[in-house]
Structure formats: C-alpha cells, structure tokens
Specification:
Helix content is about 5%, strand content about 45%. With about 130 residues, it is mainly beta. It has a single domain, classed as Phage bIL170 RBP, head domain (Immunoglobulin-like), CATH 2.60.40.2460. It has a 9-stranded antiparallel beta sheet, with no helix packed on it. A hairpin with a 4-residue loop joins strand 6 and strand 7. The longest helix has 5 residues.
C-alpha cells in the first residue's frame, strides 16, 4: 500500500496500490440477539461494517422515537472505531433508527421509529475512518 506523503503525485498505479481486507467473523451478539451474518471491509483507513442480527429477546418498545439504549453486540478487535463513538443506521424493514459503536466495539441501539419485536431481523450499517 502506498504511504501518502506531502508532494506526492496522484497516479493510476498509486490509486490501484491497495489491497482490501475482508472479514466475516468475530462479531459477538449480545444477550437477546443472535447473529445472522457479519461482514467487514477495509480499504486503507476506510472501514465498512454490515451486521445482520435477529432479535431473540422481548420486544423493544419505541416511545416517541426513543428506545431504551440496548446493547446488541460487539465488533471484533481491529474492526472498531479508533477515535471515538461513531453513529450508524439500522432497520428491520418495518422500523428504523440509529445506533452507536464505541472504540470498545460495543454496538448499542439508541433510537427507533417503531418497536423491535421478537424474531425481527435487524440490519446495521456503519462506515468510518480509522487512525
């Protein structure tokens, strides 16, 4: 991979000199959730995570766009934000909302426009830049 330095010229060869890293393992679902699938993709300092969970616990009830902050899992080391908490979006196909992931990899659902019922599939998507 090219280490970019001040004054370097942008060339086609330098743009193509980056091998992406992929993973599909290491995400751990929290109590009340099970993992359907996980995929992480990294190119340079850019990380993209797609997490697909199933709600196995009781319904998480939304009230005026808010839910009780609910931990749904933990991302593997090396696939976590490095400089602070990052916001992402999730949806079930019926409800949607926001979540956060901290530098510890803990993923927490924070907002919802509808309930997350038992046996709902929850899809989370997050993109961030690592240091």
């Amino acid at each position: 991979m090219t280490a970019w330095k001040s004054g370097m010229l942008l060339t086609a060869a330098r743009l193509l000199d980056d091998t992406p890293t992929k993973t599909t393992s290491g995400y751990t679902a929290a109590t009340g959730f099970s993992l359907n699938s996980f995929s992480g993709y990294r190119v340079g300092n850019m990380v993209v995570l797609d997490i697909y969970l199933n709600r196995t616990g009781a319904t998480i009830t939304a009230t005026s766009g808010n839910i009780t902050d609910t931990q749904c899992g933990t991302a593997p080391s090396g696939w976590r934000p490095t400089s602070g908490t990052i916001n992402g979006t999730w949806d079930t196909g019926v409800a949607e909302g926001g979540f956060v992931m901290g530098t510890d990899g803990i993923t927490t659902l924070r907002t919802a426009n509808g309930d997350i019922s038992n046996n709902s599939n929850v899809r989370l998507h997050l993109e961030f830049i690592v240091d």
